[in-house]
Structures are given as C-alpha cells and as structure tokens.
Amino acid sequence: MEVTKILLAKRLKQLRKSRGLTQEQLAELIGRDTKHISKLEIAGCYPSLTTLDRIASVLNVELKDIFNFDSVQNKKFNVDEFINIIKTSDEEKLKKIYKLYQYVSDL
Description:
- Helices cover about 70% and strands about 0% of the residues.
- With about 110 residues, it is mainly alpha-helical.
- The chain has two domains: about 1-65, 434 Repressor (Amino-terminal Domain), CATH 1.10.260; about 75-105.
- Helix 2 crosses helix 3 (about 35-40).
- The longest helix is centred in the N-terminal third of the chain and has 17 residues, at about 1-20.
C-alpha cells in the first residue's frame, strides 16, 4: 500500500505541474490548505475521495486518470547500470547520491 501512496503523490504533483499550478494555487482552487497539498505530494497522507474529485475537476482530468501511474513509475532497476554510475561519479556527485539515498530511505 505504501508504494501506491508514493505513486499517487508523484502523479498528483506531475498533474499539478503540467497545468502550471503551484501548490498554493491548487490548494486555493480546491478549498484546501497548502500544507495539505504538500503532504499529499510527499506521500504524507492519502487524499479523501472528495479531495481527489476536486483535484480532478480543477486539473480537467477524469478521476481514473489520477491513478494512471505509468508515467511516474520507475524503469526496471538495473543493478549494473547503478554500479557503473557509482564507479564513474566524482566525489561531489557521490555525496548527492548518498543524500538522496538517505532521504528516500526515510520515506
């Protein structure tokens, strides 16, 4: 279920950005607090059906389109490709990769 929450968060953010809206603008348009939109987009909570319906309406998409995760799912993980990235990265890039790893492992 946690994977679904993360995919939903990514999809909501993707749809919002594709419409050129900020979190503040979307929040105002659906009558919610900006902090709520932020929590949704970092997979901090699930939206209610009412909230999803309002978001779909404002973004001019069908409700089912919000759950089309094809565009936000990762490509198949390739260990050899990842090892090669690590081997060929300079120290600064390795630090960034490690920070990203720390962030993701906390989700």
